[in-house]
Amino acid sequence: NGITGGLENTTLPVAMTLSAFTAIAWYNVIDLNVVIWMTFKRRHGLYFYSLLASSWGIFVYALAFLMKFFQVWKNDYVSCAFITIGWYAMVTGQSLVLYSRLHLVVRDKRKVRWVLYMIIIDVLLFHFPTTVMTFGANSPAADIFSYPYSLMEKIQVTAFCIQEFIISGLYVYYTRQILKPSESFQKKRTRTVMLHLFYVNILVILMDIALLCTEYANLYEIQITFKGALYSIKLRLEFAILNDLMSI
After folding, report:
1. 128-174 per-position pLDDT tens digit
2. Do residues 177 and 133 touch, judged by C-beta distance below 8 A?
3. Residues 6+ apart with CB under 8 A from 70
4. Are 210 and 166 a contacting pair, CB within 8 Å?
5. Which residue range forms the structural domain that includes residue 196?
6. 23 vs 247, which has greater pLDDT?
7. Is the Cβ–Cβ distance between 7 and 221 less than 8 Å?
8. Structural domain contains residue 182
9. Which of 12, 26, 78, 174 could form a disulfide with 105 if both were Cys (CB 3.0 to 4.6 A apart)?
10. Is 114 left (phi over 0), alpha (psi -120 to 50) or beta?
């Protein structure tokens, strides 16, 4: 089912679904990059670079898996290398996008710093071991690595979803605190942006739950392409609302 090598006996509906999710991911990446380059006057800083890294990570990740699934690239090591690069940038890049603007709603610097520590620790605990399993499952020793990889896949998807639950949860909690009646939030524009921030992060949490459902339903090939589309939608929403947050 694509864990080792390409897909076998793929039905037309499944192939069309994979292609559709990939097309959604690519469209959002291209659209987002146009908006990024038109919006940013000063092109530097963690927010700018993590946006670029995450968006292009989505593109590379979706492309490499499509090439691997349909065996357009015959060398699975090449596919795995591009998948890994794209996956690192897509997942951790998106967490860094959220982290880079967390200080706008969370005033406690220690909590913001702990979020960064969590992101770094998760890279070490879940990115690196999964990378080893990925290459192992596509090597001559695939029989040894395939099952551990399938377990590690569930663990890392769950772990990174929890990471995003925590970051989005902080946005939701502290935005709710800010939205409590106060003189500083009588402006309609400010209150509207904060409400949008609250709802966007609730939506992000729901999207991550949907991703977990596809993972635990053992729909590997669907989950992989769905993930790329989902991350592109989340990044587009987060970019829009975080820019609004910076403007108030």
Report:
1. 999 999 999 999 988 899 899 999 999 999 999 999 999 999 998 88
2. no
3. 6, 7, 15
4. no
5. 12-247
6. 23
7. yes
8. yes
9. 174
10. alpha
The answer to whether the beta carbons of residues 61 and 87 sit under 8 Å apart is: yes
Report how far apart, in Å, the C-alpha atoms of 200 and of each of 103, 104, 167, 189 are.
Answer: 17, 16, 12, 16
**DSSP H helical segments within the chain, as ranges?**
12-39, 46-69, 76-100, 109-122, 128-137, 142-178, 188-216, 220-247
Q: Which of 242, 231, 239, 236 is nearest to 57 (CA)?
A: 231
Q: How far apart are CA 47 and CA 96, in angstroms?
A: 7
Are the C-beta atoms of residues 26 and 62 closer than 8 Å to each other? yes
> What tens digit of pLDDT does each residue of 95-113 get?
999 999 899 889 899 999 9
Confirm whether 30 is domain-assigned: yes
pTM of the model: 0.91
**Cα–Cα distance measured from residue 227 to residue 208, given in angstroms and rounded to the nearest whole number:** 9
Our count of domains for the chain comes to 1
* The pair of three-digit structure tokens given for residue 89, joined into one six-digit string: 């940038």
Residue 167 corresponds to which amino acid? I
**What does the block give as tokens for 218?**
């053992």
**Residue with token string 């092109």:** 43
